[in-house]
Amino acid sequence: MAEEPRYAIYFVPAAQSRLYRFGSFVLGYDCYTGKPVPPDNDFTIDRKEWDKLTEEPRRYGFHATLKAPFHLSHACTEAQLISAISSFAGLGHVVTTIAPAIRMLGGFAAMVPEHAEPTVARRLALGLSQNQMQNLERWGYPFLFSDFRFHMTLTGRISLDRRNEVLAWLAKTFDRMCGSEPITIDRLALVRQDGADAPFRVIAETILKPAV
Q1: Domain enclosing residue 177, as ranges
Q2: According to the model, what pLDDT value does residue 148 have?
Q3: Residue 138 resides in a domain
Q4: Which H or E run contains 126?
Q5: What is the CATH number of the domain that holds 56?
Q6: 211 versus 205: which is more confidently predicted?
Q7: Is residue 106 part of a domain?
């Protein structure tokens, strides 16, 4: 029997945006096309080491999770799910713009809002809290409910002795590719994973209608 696909709802920057080109370049994967993204001449970190460091987040693509991966109910079709997301996006929502920063988050590097509340940032830098561990065990994802924090993962877990170098390279690469461009959270992407070892791919996206 074929394995049932998993779905997730993400914020994924527009495919042609500088932000998305940065994220897909860092991870080496384009979740719009499903194809690898090769390094360029400014890629200064050992490629084999980087491939290993980004192996886990690469399969998810460059994104911020809004709803963690799930299986679709047998009573619902993919087309109905797409329609429901489109209807939700059209209800009218506050469209947020944030200033991005690259920080350590629970042992991995991620793009987060620059002005995150300091005590939260310190707590997450030390690892997952008890609530986050319970979320992970129950729901398969730690940053839910009151622990939700907008973040766009850039690496897997980094050893302590490598963190400064990796963060410096990521910051330099972001400045080169994006400058001081803010992030506008203006769209929803529905992604699908067709098997446990398959990467996630964008199958539908919709723009959020701004609240009046």
Answers
A1: 6-99+160-207
A2: 55
A3: no
A4: helix 118-126
A5: 3.90.1140
A6: 205
A7: no
> Domain total for the chain?
1
- Residue 142 confidence (pLDDT): 53
Please check whether residue 175 lies inside any domain of the structure. Answer: yes
Which are the contacts of 74, defined by CB distance < 8 A and separation ≥ 6?
Answer: none
With residues binned 3-state (H G I as helix, E B as strand, rest as coil), the percentages for the chain, rounded to 5, are 35, 30, 35
DSSP string, 128-193: --HHHHHHHHHHS-SS-GGG----EEEEEE--GGGHHHHHHHHHHHHHHHHTT--EEE-EEEEEEE
Residue 37 near residue 23, CB atoms below 8 Å: no
Give every CB contact of residue 130 below 8 A, 6+ residues apart in sequence.
none
Instruction: Tell the burial category of 115 from Cβ atoms under 10 Å away from its Cβ (0-12, 13-18, 19+).
Output: exposed
Instruction: Please report whether residue 18 resides in a domain.
Output: yes
Place of tokens 């619902």: 76
